[in-house]
């Protein structure tokens, strides 16, 4: 895979797939980061009818002190509460919550190693933690299974949220007047503006890379109303991803207890008797064959379904 950055030149509008009519409701819902279907649509406007585009992402990247270099950022692992790891209760025989009765046929409850006092809870609530982790912190997590307290602390602006939302209203004026239309004349939506130094990051397959390598930097139209973004090749992101990929593959070969970190929460689908069945973790993971527990979040849409 070949990594690229996407730099919006202004705000971007990314409406979701919900049907929208200003006459039916006045708020247009949106989604961010953009899903892969949106990125592929922007690329096809340049590549014509190419249909076999494969990509990884969308993730974030941030400019370093040397602005020619970028570093990848990934969503924080969900198996943490603030900066404390959540561990399956079954792994701690002496935990104070072991008297909790739970269904053994379901994933094991997750708990923190220690229970906070009320004072500690108040102090923690005042702190802000990274919601997106740089690739080197993720690499240490893959190697050790731990994230140091210092790695949770905000070190650069935007690590808690690399974008801000700007609410925009839209009016339609009646012809030859200065009055807003009574019907379908007004609606509101959220525009996205990335914070300074932040970009989107995607990886493309070899065929797509070959098709655009001579064209970059490339001007694309992304999202609603075709706001412009710049697509640029970022070779240093290749090296960061390769290290993470190597560590991940090494972990898959190990036979002892392991914690899986799925970068993107998803919906895993399979068909049984002509009926689609979905769940929030891979169907290959089975409670009877080693799966102890899992934690997930709202699934991020990948395609237009």
Instruction: Report the sheet-strand fraction.
Output: 25-35%
Number of helices: 6
- Mass-distribution shape: globular
Nearest-integer average pLDDT = 82
Low-confidence stretches: none
How would you describe what is shown here?
The chain has 305 residues and is α+β, with helices and mostly antiparallel strands. It has 6 helices and 15 strands. The chain has a 7-stranded antiparallel sheet with strand order 8-4-3-11-1-13-12, sandwiched between helices. A 3-stranded mixed sheet has the order 2-10-9, with no helix packed on it. Strand 14 and strand 15 (275-279) form a beta hairpin. The longest helix has 18 residues, at 235-252. The protein is globular. The relative contact order is 0.24. The mean pLDDT is 82.
Task: Describe this protein with a few key phrases.
305 residues; alpha+beta; 6 helices; 15 strands; 28% strand
Summarize the structure.
This protein is α+β, with helices and mostly antiparallel strands. It is built from six helices and 15 strands.
